Amino acid sequence: MIYPNEAQSAADVGGHYDELDEAYRRIWGEHVHHGFWRTGSESDQEATEALVELVAGRLDLAPGLQLVDIGCGYGASAEYLAARYRVDVTGFTISAAQARIAETRKPAAGRFAAFHRDWLDNGLADAVADRAFAIESSEHMVDKARFFSEAWRVLRPGGRLVVCAWLSSPDPNRLEIRHLLEPICREGRLPSMGSRADYEALAAQVGFALLGYDDISRQVRRTWSICAGRAARRLATDRAFRRFAFARTTKNRSFMLSVPRLMVALRTGAMRYGIFVWEKPA
């Protein structure tokens, strides 16, 4: 497990997304996760939805199922799944800015309810969900063991958990940790970054059975060159954005430094992007 040199709290995570709210929506979009380029010819919107479809396939969805979106962000992915698959989704985000937008979403089919609440203290009853998923939110959990134990608790027997996660390589060297992984954790407000083995061990400890794992690092890494290009254009053309990005009062301005780090980390293999599928045995 990789830890930042400066400890990151749940309040730090929420504050990060609150402060960078507009920047995230303009530069990364309202899904706030990577895209998946299967052929390389997809638009960024098609790639973003392709990742959601990848998750949907692993969740094995059917109309009427009860889903939990762990770290729903602005609710765009949850709304997409609710409307397309006619499922009911309950989402949680630690960001007040994200919750304000997520709470307004009304899918054309199915249902979606968003809550401004920490997943580690989610308030759900036991065994109320058929499926749970986390798209790039487990990285922000202060207690990853509890992340899994809460998922186990709220899922019914036979339920599935799908997790898309930023992961460290199995055995990163000292330079990779010092110049890539540790700064990514610190600048991106990740309390820790686990490896595939770390995640599988934590999930097994609470009883989950692993159904599958895929490394899709190559198919998602284009996301960051797109984000870098958008950020560069905003800096060149938007004076207010430049003031915000470089102001000393902007606490999370260092995240801009992580964009090139993420590009290098994914291309060199120091960081991986994995999709896990677990089942709570019946």
Give an account of the 3D structure.
- This protein has 282 residues and is of the alpha/beta class.
- The chain has a single domain (10-279), classed as Rossmann fold (3-Layer(aba) Sandwich).
- The chain has 12 helices and 7 strands.
- A 7-stranded mixed beta sheet has the order 3-2-1-4-5-7-6.
- Helix 10 packs antiparallel against helix 12.
- The longest helix is centred in the first third of the chain and has 16 residues, at 44-59.
- The relative contact order is 0.17.
- The mean pLDDT is 93.
Summarize the model shown.
By secondary structure, the protein is of the alpha/beta class.
Question: Helices and strands: which structural class?
Answer: alpha/beta
Strand order of the largest sheet: 3-2-1-4-5-7-6
Mean pLDDT reading: 93
Which residues form runs of ≥5 with pLDDT under 50?
none
CATH level 1 class label: Alpha Beta
Relative helix content: 40-55%
Work out the number of β strands. Answer: 7
Count of discrete domains: 1
Morphology = globular
Q: Which homologous superfamily in CATH is the superfamily? A: Vaccinia Virus protein VP39
Q: Biggest sheet, in brief? A: 7 strands, mixed
Q: Compute the gyration radius: what is it?
A: 18 Å
| Architecture (CATH level 2) name | 3-Layer(aba) Sandwich
Beta-strand percent range: 15-25%
- List the secondary-structure elements in sequence, H or E: HHHEHEHEEHEHHEHHHHE
What is the fold named in CATH at topology level?
A: Rossmann fold
